[in-house]
């Protein structure tokens, strides 16, 4: 069926064209339809849109088939063994957040006790510590250079502390307030340099700030409730990040324009954690609905759900192994579940924490991961 015939059968005849004179004579069920040039153009545009929609649907079906085929042909993982190799003790209350330094050895953690601690993960020694002016320090991040850490929480601020000064000097003396929200700070992450930092807040927004001047560079509005988490795209030249929140949405943002470029809403409760796949083509989310979900950015859809009927507690934190084959997820039932990303099956359950697992991050070299818990400790697993 030609474009015009398709449109004629959809819209009916153009009466104006009959008065002007036929440009094209089309016959459907022996009825003649005459179309002016404007109508022909409209018909062709409609047909082109229809063909694009059909091609998109076919590509999604093909993608689902490919994912299924790859999962079937992938070799099963061998025996999975990970143990607690180090336990970091020093916080006086719930550990809420942690981050690795790029040197693969140091860790920064924050807690409900108001303390931010920099650790040597190998020796378990505390290298730096600072007490914030408020409790519930819900966010912390290491700068790419390893020379500073950022943190914040119920003070609604993001503060940056340099680490290059004399250890005998107080960290608080070098404190720099960078960001200010109208509600609590829930997450923060440096971009690919020490000069800019992304923040997420209970005020429903994310924001990009200049660290040196404290100037707001870009704000991101679109969530309908508290934003709880964010993650920056892994590409060195990437300009996108993903956020999740209490509105059950995961949103992908362009940092240059401030616009949301993709949005996903398949969870049934708050999204507590988001993490990009190592290639940057997908991301995973963990939610209070007790599921983790994988979204393919190219296909613009959810492609996998990681859940079991026996898991009834929320997923608080998620991260991928360096290869992307494994997904580590911390839960409110004190466990860490390890999932086979391709096959969608659980390959291991890690026990050790004595309260809910609140934060989890794989080390930059992929040889270990660190988890933080409401039991006041952090654990290094390998």
UniProtKB/TrEMBL annotation:
GO biological process: signal transduction
SUPFAM superfamilies membership: WD40 repeat-like
Domain of life: Eukaryota
WD-type repeats, residues: 88-129, 178-219, 220-263, 264-305, 317-349, 350-382
Record key words, sorted: Repeat, Transducer, WD repeat
Protein family membership: Belongs to the WD repeat G protein beta family.
Name of this protein: Guanine nucleotide binding protein (G protein), beta 5a
């Amino acid at each position: 069926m030609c474009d015009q015939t398709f449109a004629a059968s959809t819209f009916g005849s153009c009466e104006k064209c009959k008065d002007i004179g036929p440009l094209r004579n089309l016959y459907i069920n022996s009825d003649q339809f005459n179309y002016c040039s404007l109508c022909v153009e409209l018909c062709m545009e409609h047909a082109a849109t229809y063909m694009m929609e059909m091609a998109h649907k076919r590509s999604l079906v093909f993608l689902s088939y490919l994912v299924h085929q790859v999962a079937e042909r992938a070799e099963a993982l061998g025996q999975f063994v990970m143990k607690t190799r180090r336990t970091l003790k020093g916080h006086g209350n719930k550990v809420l957040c942690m981050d690795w330094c790029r040197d693969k050895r140091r860790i920064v953690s924050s807690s409900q006790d108001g303390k931010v601690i920099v650790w040597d993960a190998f020796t378990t020694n505390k290298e730096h510590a600072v007490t914030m002016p408020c409790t519930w320090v819900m966010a912390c991040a290491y700068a790419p250079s390893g020379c500073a850490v950022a943190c914040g929480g119920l003070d609604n601020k993001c503060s940056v502390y340099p680490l290059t000064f004399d250890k005998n000097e107080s960290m608080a003396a070098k404190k720099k307030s960078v960001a200010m929200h109208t509600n609590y700070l829930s997450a923060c992450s440096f971009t690919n340099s020490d000069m800019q930092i992304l923040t997420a807040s209970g005020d429903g927004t994310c924001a990009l700030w200049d660290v040196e001047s404290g100037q707001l560079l870009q704000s991101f509005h679109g969530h309908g409730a508290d934003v709880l988490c964010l993650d920056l795209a892994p590409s060195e030249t990437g300009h996108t990040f993903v956020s999740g929140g209490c509105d059950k949405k995961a949103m992908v943002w362009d940092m240059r324009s401030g616009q949301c470029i993709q949005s996903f809403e398949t969870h049934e409760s708050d999204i507590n954690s988001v993490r990009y796949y190592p290639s940057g083509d997908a991301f995973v989310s963990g939610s209070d609905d007790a599921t983790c979900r994988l979204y393919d950015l190219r296909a613009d859809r959810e492609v996998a759900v990681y859940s079991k009927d026996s898991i009834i507690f929320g997923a608080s934190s998620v991260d991928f192994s360096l290869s992307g084959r494994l997904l580590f997820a911390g839960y409110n039932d004190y466990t860490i579940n390890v999932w086979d990303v391709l096959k969608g099956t659980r390959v291991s359950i890690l026990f050790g924490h004595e309260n809910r697992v609140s934060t989890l991050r794989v080390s930059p070299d992929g040889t270990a991961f660190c988890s933080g818990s409401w039991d006041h400790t952090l654990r290094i697993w390998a």
